[in-house]
Amino acid sequence: MDPRPAIIGRRLEKIRRIIAVSGGKGGVGKSSVAAALAVVLQDLDYRVGLLDLDFYGPSAHVILGAGRRRPREEKGLVPVRVKGIEFLSIVHFAGNRPSPLRGPALTDALIEMLAVTRWGPLDFLIVDMPPGLGDSMLDAMRLLKKARYLVVTTPSRVALETVRKLVALLTEQKAHLLGFVENMRKPGDPPAADRLKPFRLRLLGELPYDPRLEKSLGSADGLGRTDFAKALKEIVLRATDFP
Description:
Blueprint lengths: L3 H8 L3 E8 L7 H14 L4 E5 L7 H5 L7 E2 L3 E2 L1 E3 L2 E5 L1 H4 L8 H14 L5 E7 L6 H9 L3 E7 L3 H16 L3 E10 L6 H5 L6 E6 L3 H5 L3 H5 L2 H12 L5
Parallel strand pairs: 1-7, 1-8, 2-6, 2-7, 8-9, 9-10
Antiparallel strand pairs: 3-4, 5-6
Helix pairs in contact: 1-5, 2-11, 5-6
């Protein structure tokens, strides 16, 4: 029997809350939301970690500006620190090379990554979940037992259709759903609450399309000053059951 799933539980026992930022497809801004959420919570004086589980297109290291910092080996891997945030990504294992993993190899890599990482005491671990509904998403759901799910969508009808399937999966698995955030909203878009009503899931708030976001990439401080991050901070402060 593989002992690593039990080890994962011990690795995560010092973490008060795990927030799994999820989207039904790529391109909805899931990684930007996850990174900005980590920055916002750290600015609010919480102890925060950020884990990028997107094996095929990791980008949180680019958004935060993690540079070439590497985890320290000490009875496992100690995450790097970026603006006070504990951070780990698949890039710390594979570098900038592609990770062409499939099936059992993908599951094994995910289990190994979670089993060797030594998180300190944290108020929040923000997890940038794998996109879609494939094996890596299902494995992450199985291994992150106490995760609460924050679902990211956009006003796009295509995004909403894929999110519908994600919410159905999370509901079927009896996952704890925090609610939606609607990303990249522009003036004139139809009211989000009307279009999301069929999902029977709370709309936590809307994040504006912010042209400054692209320019902020690579700087956690710059990210925190964007209208995007400010809107996310308002969502956190308004949702009293979130922290």
